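Obj: model holo form, ligand = zinc ion.
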Amino acid sequence: MIPVKAFAAQNAAAPLAPFDFERRELRANDVLIDILFSGVCHSDLHQVRDEWGGSMYPMVPGHEIVGKVIKVGSEVKKFVPGNTAGIGVMVDSCRECKPCKNHMEQYCAEGMTGTYNGFERDKTTIAQGGYSTQIVCDERWVYHVADSLDMAGVAPLLCAGITTYSPLKYDNVKAGDKVAVAGLGGLGHMAVKFAVAMGAEVTMLSTSTSKEADARKLGAHNFVLSTDEAAMKKLESHFDVVLDAVSGNHDYEIYLKLLDVSGKLLVVGLPKDQPKVNTFELIKNRRCIIGSMIGGTAETQEMLDFCAEKNIVADVEVIPMQYINEAYERMLKNDVKYRFVIDMASLKQA
Ligand code: NAP
Ligand code: ZN
Ligand code: ZN
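Output (holo structure tokens):
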């Protein structure tokens, strides 16, 4: 077994605290990664605090992982020691069902194996995530990362990046499309970067007045305060796409109203309470709500290659592991610019 240091939650009310545990020895298709950076996703906070129900403890969160391959199993083909590599929200799946065969493992018929907060395929070991010094994973769920990119900025691509890239690609967002992004957090800021890179005219819908200048720096062409009813009214039936990356409880109605004929509300935000839908707003303009969960293995590699080509990374605030509980509190106040990323050296030296 491989001993690792980590930070874990022991229950929904406790702060994260140091936790030592062991990773499995490498199987034939496994790689061992020394973790350099681990991004902090709002899903980590939702799950640590059991906001979606069914959380399993102890829980080592973290599913935006970048590091160096330090050892490979006997059958590994994609990696050699020394490669820079990433791991995202999944570490396994059934591998046999139709979605798995199509490399859309996030929609595995048996359920994907999450990087943490669930059992591994053996149904007994709790998978533990990236707030740790090392991780072992089957190479299918490990991605190549270009060394030309800033590593701290790469980590959030593994969740915030793929989760926003995938629905925008699925919807074939292209030059001239009018796209709005709701919620300027980790996911929202990546959505702005991708939609701009795809050529769309991008409007940021935010509840925070303080974020306008940043939204424009990220490439947004327009900024609208979503609490400003008059400004929102002017945008009714205006957009082809609204991407909802909101973490807090909210109503879909204010965003649905903004969609033009056949417009789509792409939902990636997962608040604690189920959002309400006004069906009259839904049928008007033949509007459509599409949910989307991260992205499959093939698309995740495609996204990372796209980012390397376009030099896209997340805007990050690098923190030591020991700052995580304060970081969660700041995330709840919408005070993140625009992703906390843990420098795992802080845990290795502790
Ligand atoms: P985040 O960094 O905390 O950003 C969320 C942003 O939403 C906030 O900065 C804020 O932006 C806005 N917001 C928060 N509460 C709001 C409310 N009540 N009404 C309107 N806007 C509000 O979170 P994140 O890491 O980007 O994650 C966003 C959501 O996506 C989370 O629920 C997360 O669990 C989910 N998620 C889903 C997937 C998936 O596969 N679908 C993957 C990863 C994460 P402004 O200040 O601009 O208003
Ligand atoms: Zn995430
Ligand atoms: Zn499957």
